[in-house]
Design goal:
Four Helix Bundle (Hemerythrin (Met), subunit A), 2 domains, 10 helices, two-stranded antiparallel ribbon, elongated, mainly alpha, about 250 residues, Arc Repressor Mutant, subunit A
Length: about 250
């Protein structure tokens, strides 16, 4: 399955070959890599180099090295939560702005809403309705954190209906970032109510199986959220600036 690695970046070559084998379907979650002796012969490397490569793959979440009976390097499916956290940790050092986030949302989320209007299942349609109802109950009880979680999940259910694993990952990740922004900026009841009103319109368009309307309502919703959060961020920055200057 594997070839001798001959370059100066031997460890990376080993990692690349194993990742390629996973992509090609030659290795699947639950499969176990050949024993260490066999792998060192296939790659033409020392035990130390092989072990370094396996440690790197384990750190990436692609394998789980187990000891004892039934041990070995097991192929595992990368956990989506770990993936999202790694991406978030990278972006937090890049001066990520609300405008950056909204630019991506305006490109992708209207498309996702249109796809949902075309393909959503009865179960997922019921989930959207339930999420809206639960979110409104939480809002009426002044449980804004719980309400925010419900409305983020509303977007996740819509993303799932694209059927595209890349879009699902990106949209799920984007919603996580949005939730983090909200935790910092703490939008008020009026904002939360406007979000739920927008979700009602999106839900109705999806119910009516109207992709164009669903797309339009989603774009308007994302745009409105951007304006509101950007204004909150501006107010927070102004307040912090006043504190620093003592004015």
């Amino acid at each position: 399955m594997f070839k001798i690695a001959r370059t100066s970046t031997i460890t990376q070559k080993i990692i690349d070959q194993i990742r390629t084998a996973i992509l090609a379907g030659k290795l699947k979650p639950g499969d176990v890599l050949p024993p260490e002796k066999e792998l060192t012969e296939q790659f033409g490397v020392s035990k130390q180099t092989l072990r370094e490569s396996l440690r790197a793959l384990e750190h990436m979440g692609l394998i789980d090295v187990r000891k004892g009976i039934g041990g070995g390097a097991h192929i595992v499916e990368v956990d989506i939560e770990v993936t999202k956290q790694s991406l978030a940790n990278f972006l937090y050092f890049k001066d990520l702005t609300i405008e950056n986030l909204s630019e991506l949302r305006k490109l992708i989320e209207p498309h996702a809403a249109a796809k949902a209007a075309d393909h959503i299942s009865k179960d997922d349609l019921q989930k959207l309705d339930q999420l809206n109802q639960t979110a409104r109950d939480n809002l009426n009880n002044n449980l804004l954190a719980e309400m925010s979680h419900d409305e983020i999940n509303f977007h996740r259910v819509i993303a799932q209906n694209t059927g595209n694993p890349i879009l699902i990952l990106i949209l799920d990740f984007v919603e996580n970032l949005l939730e983090d922004f909200k935790k910092v900026l703490k939008p008020d009841m009026a904002f939360s109510k406007s979000v739920l009103d927008a979700h009602d319109k999106i839900y109705q368009a999806i119910c009516d199986k109207d992709p164009k309307k669903a797309s339009t309502e989603m774009y308007q919703h994302v745009y409105d959220v951007e304006l509101h959060l950007a204004k909150l961020k501006q107010d927070v920055d102004l307040w912090q600036g006043c504190l620093k200057t003592g004015s």
